[in-house]
Amino acid sequence: MSYQQIEGGVCAAQGFCAASCEANIKYENRTDMAMVFSQTPCVSAGTFTTNVVKAACVQWDQKLVSSGDPIHAVVINSGIANACTGQEGFDACEATAKAVEAQLQVPYTSVAVASTGVIGMQLPVAKLVSGVQKMSTGLSDSNQAGTDASKAIMTTDTVNKEIAVTFTIGGKQVVLGGMSKGSGMIHPNMCTMLAFLTSDIAIEKSLLQQAVSEVVADTFNMITVDGDTSTNDTLLLLANGLAGNPCITEADTDYETFKEALFYVCRFLARKMASDGEGATKLFEAKVVNAKSKEDARILSRAIVGSNLSKAAIYGCDANFGRFLCAMGYSGAKFDQNDVELFFESKNGRMMVFSKGVPLAFDEDRALEIMKADEVTVYVDMHEGDAQATAWGCDLTYDYVKINADYRS
């Protein structure tokens, strides 16, 4: 392992600062706007929702990232998604970016924006501008500022999500930090998630994008809570080069070192979002090994954690392995059920319940003990190849319906 986890989030890397404020966009008596800022221009990379219905902020950021122009700031609001809002939604993006330009003297075309919350409501632009003005005077590079920003972007999340790691490239210490939000309306590709990563690494833009795209496939695109892919999914990575490492210009060992750290950060945040699914009591992991291909392994593992019947079984601590085999069977991947072995795993133990097409006799009380843990894994050995993949989700509880039945109110 070439990286080390350290304290912090989006402010851990050199040159990055953050701020948050209570703007009353939709919520009251809590912070609901955040800003991440680098005075030094950053190269950027991003991935976005595959939903055809894309929020105005997603389209704004896609254009900004694809332009290749530098980025200085990201402004995020929670409460209202700015999706399905027509021209007025784009005007809100521009007004927010121009407010940053006026306050911090950077081009408005170097300001990304992101929103999360209720679809179909217009953003109160005056409150956005006022929020930018407040945050511009309160920017700080402290870890606490980063933590406060990670809390301000939450909607139905119950915990904030942040992480930072350090690693060495060319004799220079490099830091990568990040924060994310996501709890419901989560499904590949990607999910109802916002994630913002910051690094002081020096790296060529196309390689930064390549690393992000490759890592997302096995992290953020492998989580699901409820099968709904959002209109607002955004992952942005900004790199300002202040670490002073030799700029990474090819996919060499330095690139692999960076990608390894990036994978760890994204996997950490993805698991945090899955375990914080709306109403969830457990992290539900599916690990498929020895599949014919990587894509088959991804399809199978995602099908297991995405099945409502599987999720209900995890909630009820019901060792009904048929739920998981059924989900695999309709996933679209081709396999022979007579090759499959299926296990339940947790910190409380491991148990095989199905082998080569035949159910095994097992101790129900022991199985119950295994499934009572707060993290439960369904481990499947396909015995058909050497590919593997892991997906993450959560159990399905009564509270999921309660939370979403009155989401707007």
TrEMBL record:
Pathway(s) the chain acts in: Amino-acid biosynthesis; L-arginine biosynthesis; N(2)-acetyl-L-ornithine from L-glutamate: step 1/4; Amino-acid biosynthesis; L-arginine biosynthesis; L-ornithine and N-acetyl-L-glutamate from L-glutamate and N(2)-acetyl-L-ornithine (cyclic): step 1/1
EC code(s) of this entry: 2.3.1.35, 2.3.1.1
Involved in the stabilization of negative charge on the oxyanion by the formation of the oxyanion hole (site feature) positions: T116, G117
InterPro entries (UniProt xref): Arg_biosynth_ArgJ, ArgJ-like_dom_sf, ArgJ_beta_C
Main subcellular location of this protein, as a coarse class: cytoplasm
Catalyzed reaction equations: N(2)-acetyl-L-ornithine + L-glutamate = N-acetyl-L-glutamate + L-ornithine; L-glutamate + acetyl-CoA = N-acetyl-L-glutamate + CoA + H(+)
Keywords: Acyltransferase, Amino-acid biosynthesis, Arginine biosynthesis, Autocatalytic cleavage, Cytoplasm, Multifunctional enzyme, Transferase
A Gene Ontology BP annotation from the UniProt entry: L-arginine biosynthetic process
Pfam families, sorted: ArgJ
Compartment(s): Cytoplasm
Catalytic residue positions: T192
Family: Belongs to the ArgJ family.
Subunit note: Heterotetramer of two alpha and two beta chains.
Function, in words: Catalyzes two activities which are involved in the cyclic version of arginine biosynthesis: the synthesis of N-acetylglutamate from glutamate and acetyl-CoA as the acetyl donor, and of ornithine by transacetylation between N(2)-acetylornithine and glutamate.
Full protein name: Arginine biosynthesis bifunctional protein ArgJ
Encoding gene per record: argJ
